[in-house]
Amino acid sequence: MALHFERSEFDARRDRLMIEMAERKLDALLLFAQESMYWLTGYDTFGFCFFQCLVVRADGSMTLLTRSADLRQARHTSIIDNIELWTDRDGANPAIDLRNLLNEMDLLGARIGVEYDTHGLTALNGRRLDEQLQTFGQISDASGIVGRLRLFKSPAEIAKVEKAAALTDDALDAALPLIRQGGDEAAILAAMQGTILTGGGDYPANEFIVGSGPDALLCRYKAGRRKLNKNDQLTLEWAGVFHHYHAPMMRTVLTGKVSRRHQELYDAALAALLAVEKVLTPDNTFGDVFDAHARAMEAHGLTKHRLNACGYSVGARFSPSWMDMPMFYQGNPEPIAPNMTLFAHMIIMDSETETAMTLGRTYLTTESQARPLSRHDLDLIVK
Questions:
Q1: Do 105 and 233 lie in a common domain?
Q2: Pairing of strands 138-141, 111-114
Q3: Quick check: 98 and 66 in contact, CB under 8 A?
Q4: PANTHER family of this UniProt entry (predicted)?
Q5: Are residues 349 and 273 in the same domain?
Q6: Per-block average pLDDT, block size 10, for the chain (383 residues)?
Q7: In the predicted model, what is the mean pLDDT of the chain?
Q8: How far is CA 148 from the centre of its chain?
Q9: In whole angstroms, what is the distance from residue 162 CA to residue 160 CA?
Q10: For the chain, which terminal residue's Cβ has fewer other Cβ atoms within 10 angstroms, N or C?
Q11: In the chain, which ranges are E strands?
Q12: CA-to-CA distance for 304 and 283, rounded, in angstroms?
């Protein structure tokens, strides 16, 4: 089978989940998030765009309900032994198939947790699910259970993120020679993604951000490419990916002369990131991290040009986004703990002068100071 971890790793994850289920007095858990299924079993697919569900019982046994197209995928990439199929047909309602499966598993009247908060369960399918289960058992929202377990990385997972981070650095190295007057965004993007794939990496859970000129102020990918001018700005956000584990980085690279405004924004971004690094320790919270970022931005008079979040957890994620929870935003009480992999980004977008500046990288938290996973320094890059 195409498993990326030892069986003992999956057994340990299952045992952690069983403890959580017991504490919540759940007889079964219905998982719809692809990253939850991947973490728990190794199951690797983009078939979650259709209805599928991994049923986990309190005793640790698991049954997957999916489509015929994913039968062999599940057999080849996961440790799941019990796989049931629902049939594509006109008027199909796979929620009925799931209810019937749960009934066959003797779960009628049971306490069942549902992973609602995921792209793997559309609003339509969620409504269908509720219609079938509202009188079937005691249903509760259990969205955060597996997500929080995934927040804390095992040594084997940390090794995956470290490999991803090396690919992130390699991608920047491939891009830098192409960033110059007349340089093509398309060539830069191709070089970065090609380097990651050639290095044994994977596609990212969302598109890389590449934008120059006015587009450097955008925080999302968009279609369309341009070529760089003599004095230009290029914002890049990308991630090396290894076995679906992500290690993002974000930089704004300049060509030609550095304007006074670019220098001011870079100084602020650097100060903010260094302030954030100091509080990425177990005696602080995710909210404290955001506050450190906000104070630095305020000290530079840039409150109106910053964002309302400055990073998030990263790990194994699937489309449409590599962003994981929890995030660095105001008031988030989640404690920083060792063995988290966290992406901190300082993003300053001055729309009044059309000036962009970003600075971000991925960290591994420890018992004390967090460790950057990039070999690149934080100097302003000017080509």
A1: no
A2: parallel
A3: no
A4: AMINOPEPTIDASE, XAA-PRO AMINOPEPTIDASE P-RELATED
A5: yes
A6: 93 98 98 98 97 98 98 97 96 97 98 97 97 96 97 98 98 98 98 98 98 96 96 98 98 97 98 98 97 98 97 98 97 98 98 97 98 98 97
A7: 97
A8: 13
A9: 5
A10: N
A11: 28-31, 53-57, 62-66, 82-85, 111-114, 138-141, 209-212, 232-242, 245-255, 311-313, 324-327, 341-350, 355-364, 371-372
A12: 29
Count of domains observed in the chain: 2
Q: Tell whether pTM > 0.90.
A: yes
Place of tokens 């260094």: 274
| CB-CB contact of 19 with 12 (8 Å) | no
Amino acid at 275: A
**Could you tell me which residues are beta bridge partners of residue 32?**
none
Tell me the residue length of the chain.
Answer: 383
The whole-angstrom separation of Cα 243 and Cα 350 is 37
What number of H helices and E strands is found in the chain? 10, 14
Question: Is residue 382, in this structure, part of any structural domain at all?
Answer: no
Q: Are residues 60 and 119 in the same domain?
A: yes
Report the chain's C-alpha Rg in angstroms.
22
CATH number at residue 79: 3.40.350.10
The reply to whether 145 and 166 lie within a common domain is: no
Q: What tokens were used for 88?
A: 């594509």
Which one, of 136, 314, 181, 309, lies nearest residue 238 by Cα? 314
**Has residue 294 been placed in a domain?**
yes
Peptide linkage before 326 cis (omega within 30 of 0): yes
Could you tell me if residue 15 is inside a domain? yes
Reported in sequence order, the residue ranges of 20-72 that DSSP labels E, i.e. its strands, are 28-31, 53-57, 62-66
Residues 22 and 116 in one domain: yes
Signed CA dihedral, 10, 11, 16, 19: sign only = positive
pLDDT value of residue 295: 98
Sheet holding 28-31, edge to edge: 82-85, 62-66, 53-57, 28-31, 111-114, 138-141
Q: Do residues 153 and 339 lie in contact, with contact meaning Cβ atoms separated by under 8 Å?
A: yes
The domain boundary residue, chosen from 150, 174, 196: 150
Domain that holds residue 98: 7-150
Exposure pattern of 176-207 as b/e (b: 16+ CB <10 Å)?
Answer: bebbeeebebeebbebbbebbeebebbebbbb
Of 150, 170, 186, the position where a domain reaches its end is 150
